[in-house]
Amino acid sequence: MLKVLRSSSSCLQQARLPSYLQSNPRHTTTKLSSPFHGVLSSVLLRDTKNPRFFQRVFFCSDSADGSGSGTEAVVEEAESKSPAAIVPTAIKKPDDFLTVIALPLPHRPLFPGFYMPIYVKDPKLLAALVESRKRQAPYAGAFLVKDDPGSEATGSDTEKNIYELKGKDLLNRLHEVGTLAQITSIQGDQVVLIGHRRLRITEMVSEDPLTVQVDHLKDSPYNKDDDVIKATSFEVITTLRDVLKTSSLWRDHVQTYNQHIGDFNYPRLADFGAAISGSNKLQCQQVLEELDVYKRLRLSLELLKKEMEIHKIQESIAKAIEEKISTEQRRYLLNEQYKAIKKELGLETDDKTALTDKFRDRIDPNKEKIPPHVLQVIEEELKKLQLLEASSSEFNVTRNYLDWLTALPWGNYSDENFDVLRAQEILDEDHYGLADVKERILEFIAVGKLRGTSQGKIICLSGPPGVGKTSIGRSIARALNRNFYRFSVGGLSDVAEIKGHRRTYIGAMPGKMVQCLKSVGTANPLVLIDEIDKLGRGHAGDPASAMLELLDPEQNANFLDHYLDVPIDLSKVLFVCTANVIETIPNPLLDRMEIIPIAGYITDEKMHIARDYLEKNTRDACGVKPEQVEVSDAALLSLIENYCREAGVRNLQKQIEKIYRKIALKLVRQGAEGLGSENHGELTEISSDKQTNEPESNTTEEAEVVEPIVSATHPTDQASDLTDTTEKVLVDEENLMDYVGKPVFHAERMYDQTPLGVVMGLAWTAMGGSTLYIETTQIEQGEGKGALSLTGQLGDVMKESAQIAHTVARAILGVKDNGNPFFANSKLHLHVPAGATPKDGPSAGCTMITSMLSIAMNKPVKKDLAMTGEVTLTGRVLPIGGVKEKTIAARRSGVKTIIFPLANKRDFDELAPNVKEGLDVHFVDDYNQIFELAFDNLQTEK
Fold first, then answer.
1. How does DSSP classify residue 727?
2. CA–CA dist 689, 701 (Å, integer)
3. C-alpha angle with apex 545: 544 to 550, nearest 5 degrees?
4. Is 468 annotated as contributing to ligand binding?
5. Is residue 59 within 8 Å of 65, Cβ to Cβ?
6. 557, pLDDT greater than 70
7. Residue 464 annotated as lining a ligand binding site
8. Residue limits of the Lon proteolytic domain (predicted)?
């Protein structure tokens, strides 16, 4: 019988609230519902005070097993007009429905006593449900859909595909066991269901909509007094107590469940636990299909335990994040309070005031030395900084500008040492030879001592790689007691690297000189500008032109950097530039520098450098003691002549390092073998003693005892053992190949006796001096066939020299051997060996003439003769460059006689005596003098 009650008191009576709300909570009973209701009593008693608790529709079953004999509805007056309300009319019992419409549930099964809203997209199915509800049959079967094994579609796609299935296809996708669901409301396509009891599909009645015949399932009989079932149920209740503490939503589930089912019993307890868990649908379906009450309780307990574990993990994650956030917030608040307190007490000022104080502390000690125009700019920028907001971009620009302005060493000069004798010792200590370079540096120091102050100069050290240009600059700084700063301009193509950027640009920086002054902290450092001959030129301007202001002694007293925009005095800076080839330096820039050439080293100088500098430093770097190794002079000489023939000593240092690395490996191997044999004997003795004294100990224990004894040796003791057990290593000319491999160079002299048409010339290269053979031969002879062909990758200058030489040789032959038609009737081929190397330069004219005359007159040139110089059409010999380099090359090749132009006599006289020693040098002004020197006292070969 259905009754509509409007008062709260009658509602409580008709809703048949659980007994634990009507009884004294302090009394305990033996009913199963009492323990569980005791857990939830605080929640439900608190909810009874809320009038909205009774504004619901209740469907209650009378029987304890869930099959009620009647259904009652309690509807508040405000909801009686809603379409969701159920009309109070006589309704059939649930047992009367053996044929129901099958509703597919895509996500979770529906348990008895729980609401579930679903969306019905099929119009026919929706119409059938509405019609069924009108016919006072508001029941349907809710069955979970099986997963499609061959599909990987998402949830929404799966639900869409289910509604497309009809008849048997849909029946095959449904689980057999479902729930009899009462249709409480239909609003649009949303249908709200409440589960009542379990059903099993027996057969299909109709296809569209799918209607099936069902059997109503009852739980298997069980003993309510069974201890195992009681214990399991109490564990479920205990777990539920913990679960219900975590979310108010689940407490609402308890409230709703009690309103529709009534008191709890064992089966309902299992259903409730599975329903509120967050397990997947297959696990829930397994609980729904289980009719054995004990097994159902076990399954539900497993699901609840998993739910608690997940909640614990969730709580730990949330707690960690909350602690981190709360710690950071607390730290932030405390810092802000601390700043406010310090500000109130006057212990700390704001950021702008602190910055201003920092900048003023920098300039106050040297305020008298700072130029007035710079001091004015600093004061203006400090005032500007106070007016700007700290968050503005202009504030950061001004702060960086002031940082650079106040960090420069305005008027701060280092105390120079003008002791010439000390400077001489330092230069000799760091470098061997280079007398002209050292002399120039000593002159600079002497002038500074007489004047009482030094003036910055621009010195350019030019020479091949590896001669020590950069290290000379460092030695000069040490001798003068100046700070040293080096930067390379090789490949530099941006003017801003020298002159700085404008401050308005993002990421603007001052130029290299301003960075240098800030780094060294003095206004008179020694600045080494490396590779100045390799300055580039790009779209950002010409750096070589920008260097003019920096290196001009008349301009660099007021050097203007684009970033600072105030003049800087660089007149006290000593600039030392390095270059390999001065020809590539622009003339305006070259004019501002004093060139000091470094030609390279002859064999004797290399021997001294290798023995006194390179070998000593390399030996220390490799950890080899002097008494452990000996490198003979013959080995060093062979190394220099056959492996390291270039002008510098960088490659020589690499080869010496290679030798000492192999010596170090050899010493360590010998020492390891010696120590290994000794330690092996000691280990054997210890092991035998151990076995004698403690025969019961095993091998592992012996190893543990012996190992500390071996590793306890100090490294210095091991080094001394190495010294004692290794033999001294001797490196001589015979075994040099074992350390450095096969010789790289062979003798530059290709001929012991110079053949016809072959003459040795002297050439200059960026790597130093070199000998150069010029060969001429006759390839064809006939009336009027005089011609000349050239090979050997000759440049335009040398090609022109060859044509001039051919003309001059023809004229000289007409004078010396009148009537000889050789040049008129002979086609000549002139070749310069090493054809893969490009060659050019105005110093091979006299060599070419001599080669042509040798083949024309059938006379070889004098033995051990080399020459250099350019010849005009009138036979006059012009001066050349690189006299020192060419002289060194001649000595290296064993040449005894050299012919130089007369104009180069002064250059030769300035050479060191050891370079000129043993050479027969002739200075000529006309080619006829060369002719007499080359072909005098030679017999004509028939």
1. P
2. 14
3. 90
4. yes
5. no
6. yes
7. yes
8. 753-937
- State the Cα–Cα distance between residues 438 and 776, nearest whole angstrom: 45
Query: Nearest CA to 32 among 197, 244, 268, 260?
Result: 268
Contact 260, 58 (CB under 8 A): yes
694's CB contacts (< 8 A; 6+ apart) are none
Q: Give the per-residue SS3 of 821-846.
A: CHHHHEEEEEECCCCCCCECCCCCHH
Query: Once rounded to an integer, what is the mean pLDDT over residues 223-248?
Result: 78
Q: Distance between CA 528 and CA 513 in Å, rounded?
A: 11
Provide the token pair at 549: 């202001």
Can you read off the two tokens belonging to residue 325?
A: 């956030």
Model pLDDT, residue 89: 37
CA 130 to chain CA centroid, Å, is: 69
The helix-helix angle for 351-363 and 393-407 (nearest 10°) equals 20
The tens digit of pLDDT for each residue in 254-268 reads 666 655 555 667 787
Rounded Cα–Cα distance for residues 67 and 90 (Å): 17
Kind of pairing between the strands at 920-924 and 897-901:
parallel
Contacts of 252 (CB under 8 A, 6+ apart): none
Which residue type sits at 317?
I
Residue 470 is labelled as binding a ligand = yes
Instruction: Please give the Cα distance from 830 to 806 (Å, whole number).
Output: 10
Amino acid at 272: F
Nearest-angstrom CA–CA distance, 142 and 106: 10
- C-alpha span between 369 and 622 (Å, rounded): 49
Residue for token pair 């009336």:
783
First to last CA, the chain: 152
pLDDT at 310 over 50: yes
> Which one, of 97, 30, 94, lies nearest residue 59 by Cα?
94
Per-residue pLDDT averaged across 7-35, rounded? Answer: 34
Backbone angles phi, psi at 410, to 5 degrees: -65, 115
Contact 433, 593 (CB under 8 A): no
Residues 6+ apart with CB under 8 A from 471: 430, 431
pLDDT in tens, 391-409: 788 888 888 899 898 888 8
pLDDT tens sequence across 70-99? 333 332 333 333 333 333 334 566 766 788
DSSP secondary structure letter of residue 433: S
Give the pLDDT mean for 49-68. Answer: 34
If you average pLDDT over every residue of the chain, what do you get? 76
Residue 240 has which token pair? 């539920």
Q: Which helix (H) or strand (E) holds 866?
A: strand 865-867
Task: Note whether 456 and 570 are within 8 A (CB).
Answer: yes
Look at residue 52 in the predicted model and tell me its pLDDT: 33
Q: Is 469 annotated as a binding residue?
A: yes
Phi, psi for 560 (deg, rounded to 5) = -110, 115
What phi and psi values does residue 871 have, to the nearest 5 degrees?
A: -120, 135
Q: How many Å separate Cα 798 from the centre of its chain?
A: 51
**pTM (2 d.p.):** 0.55
With CA atoms as reference, report the closest residue to 670 among 722, 731, 735, 730.
Answer: 722
Q: Is 568 helix (H, G, I), strand (E, B) or coil?
A: strand
Encode pLDDT of 716-737 as tens digits: 445 555 555 567 888 888 888 8
Is it true that the peptide bond before 626 is cis, omega within 30 degrees of 0? no
In this prediction, residue 747 has a pLDDT band, given cuts at 50, 70 and 90, of low
Task: Answer yes or no: are the C-beta atoms of 141 and 100 closer than 8 Å.
Answer: yes
Q: Which residues of 585-613 are buried (b: 16+ CB within 10 A; e: fewer)?
A: beeebbebbeebbbbbbbebbbbebbeeb
3-state helix, strand, coil in the chain (%, to 5): 50, 15, 35
Count CB neighbours of 623 within 10 A: 12
Contacts of 942 (CB under 8 A, 6+ apart): none
Catalytic residue numbers read: 843, 886
Left, alpha or beta for 793 (phi > 0: left; psi -120 to 50: alpha)?
Answer: left
What is the predicted pLDDT for the residue at 18? 36
Backbone angles phi, psi at 116, to 5 degrees: -155, 115
